[in-house]
Write a structure and sequence with these properties.
The complex is a heterodimer of chains A (218) and B (247). Chain A is built from ten helices and no strands. With 218 residues, chain A is mostly helical. Chain A has one domain (2-216). Classes of the chains: A mainly alpha (218), B mainly alpha (247). The A-B interface holds A 144, 148-149, 151-152, 155, 158, 161-162, 164-166, 168-169, 172-173, 176, 189-190, 193, 197, 204-205, 208, 211-212, 215-216, 218 and B 135, 138-139, 141-142, 145-146, 149-150, 155, 158-159, 162-163, 165-167, 169-170, 173-174, 177-178, 180-181.
Chain lengths: 218, 247
């Protein structure tokens, strides 16, 4: 399993754009929104949690189709499916590799971009926590969507149509956590619920994604 | 195999025979119930003392939203039956139900907006019930798009079944997540065992008749569309056979 993870990470780094592209996209979204909304800092700090989460969501979506597509084309996915390693384990590792190349850098970069959006200082910690807790769910749900659409020629647009509605609970609890953090309110409820969504996703979706992969590999 | 089992209708030929006989009476009954219920609802009920005539849109709104969630539930069950027992009719019924459910969702949203404008003073409000219906609409879109995108019929049936199961979980999660996210202005349930929040008796009976009409309409359309799907499948099989004999 570790070998699958390392292989995916190496491929992501060497192919270029693994870390950089998602981050650059995140930066562009965060820069474009103030241009569209206007430079009033009060408005920006109000909508900052939402912009940061939407940016993270879209940046995550950008690289989803690469989770399985390349391995499906060159046949290595068939090898992984027939190997002694359970396909569920492969799915988890691939989702983890996706998270390390997108979710983790996004989380680390988010405070810098939060300054641009004038997010209140007390919310910075909550921003990091909510992204650390939430982005693994984004990768895992995305891996499920990628597994569903792996056999399709032009699955990209369909993938976003399938995956984005599934992101709704994570998005709601993630932004609510930051918003409450910014307003010095009790954060326990959204924190726990966000963690529940992520853990539940990690527990259930590998099986669904592996089932979808097996159907596509038939 | 026991002949008096529900699974015998999973045989496409049997399904076609039985549904062929059942369709005309079902269509007539649904038309009768709809005409009776809507006429009673629109013209023979009193006006609400607060909402005026606009309350009567309820006779379309309430049945369609109930059917919208009900259709998704039916798709979930049909998908599970396909996934476990591999009955093609079941998979095709789930496929056939999706556009009907989407239409009910859209009707629910549209009638809600038309009713909300005079009553709440706005076409759209980010209220939990409205929002979760919009999300349900997106789920229908994704489900139908996945069916369209995959050419191989059995793969499509399997993958959409997986999506339907996972989507149901997430739709339910979203339903409660939006409750957390915003406080609602929507009315309480129209039908519920709790008498306090029910609609008034003057409206209950025509509403029930409308609901039965919508239910029958759904079954009629479902049978019709499933029959069409089965025939499409047969045509595809015939064409494939023709190509084989040509080659």
């Amino acid at each position: 399993m570790i070998a699958v993870l390392l292989r995916d990470l190496k491929l992501a780094i060497r192919a270029g754009g693994g870390f950089g592209l998602g981050l650059a996209f995140f930066l562009i979204v965060v820069v474009l929104v103030p241009l569209a909304v206007g430079p009033e800092t009060a408005t920006l700090s109000l909508i900052a949690p939402g912009i940061l989460w939407i940016g993270a969501l879209l940046a995550c979506l950008l690289s989803l189709d690469r989770i399985f597509a390349l391995d499906f084309e060159d046949g290595s996915l068939d090898l992984m499916a027939t190997s002694p390693l359970p396909l569920e384990g492969v799915v988890v590792m691939k989702a983890l590799a996706h998270w390390i190349t997108t979710g983790l850098p996004l989380t680390l970069a988010a405070p810098v971009l939060a300054i641009l959006l004038n997010l209140p200082t007390q919310a910075f910690g909550w921003l990091m926590i909510s992204l650390v807790l939430g982005t693994p769910a984004l990768s895992m749900i995305g891996a499920f969507g990628a597994a569903l659409t792996v056999g399709l020629k032009r699955g990209g647009l369909l993938l976003s149509l399938l995956v984005l509605p599934l992101y709704v609970p994570t998005l709601i609890f993630g932004t609510e956590l930051i918003r409450r953090g910014a307003g010095d309110m009790a954060t326990t409820t959204p924190l726990i619920l966000l963690a529940v969504i992520t853990l539940g996703t990690l527990a259930v979706l590998p099986f669904a994604a592996a089932a979808a992969l097996r159907i596509n590999l038939r | 195999m026991a002949m008096n089992s529900i699974w015998q209708y999973a045989n496409p030929k049997r399904f076609m025979t039985v549904s062929g006989y059942a369709l005309p009476p079902l269509a007539v009954a649904s038309a009768a119930f709809l005409i009776a219920g809507l006429y009673w609802g629109f013209f023979l009920t009193p006006e609400d003392f607060k909402q005026g005539t606009s309350v009567k849109i309820m006779f379309v709104h309430v049945p369609s939203v109930i059917m919208a969630t009900g259709t998704w539930f039916m798709m979930l069950i049909a998908s599970l039956i396909w996934y476990v027992r591999r009955h093609h009719v079941s998979a095709l019924a789930a496929k056939a139900a999706a556009p009907i459910g989407m239409t009910f969702t859209l009707m629910g949203l549209a009638t809600g907006a038309i009713w909300g404008q005079p009553t709440w003073g706005t076409w759209w409000e980010w209220d939990p019930q409205l929002t979760s219906f919009l999300i349900l609409f997106l789920f229908y879109l994704g489900y139908m798009a996945l069916w369209e995108a995959i050419e191989e019929p059995d793969t499509a049936a399997d993958l959409t079944a997986v999506l339907c199961v996972v989507g149901s979980i997430f739709a339910l999660l979203s339903r409660y997540a939006v409750l957390f996210w915003s406080q609602g202005i929507h009315q309480a349930a129209s039908f519920s065992l709790d008498k306090e929040e029910n609609v008034d008796n003057a409206y209950a009976l025509p509403l029930l008749i409308c609901f039965i009409g919508f239910m029958l309409l759904f079954i009629t359309l479902l049978l019709l569309r499933t029959r069409a799907e089965i025939r499409l499948r047969r045509v595809a099989a015939l064409e494939a056979r023709e190509r084989m004999s040509d080659a």
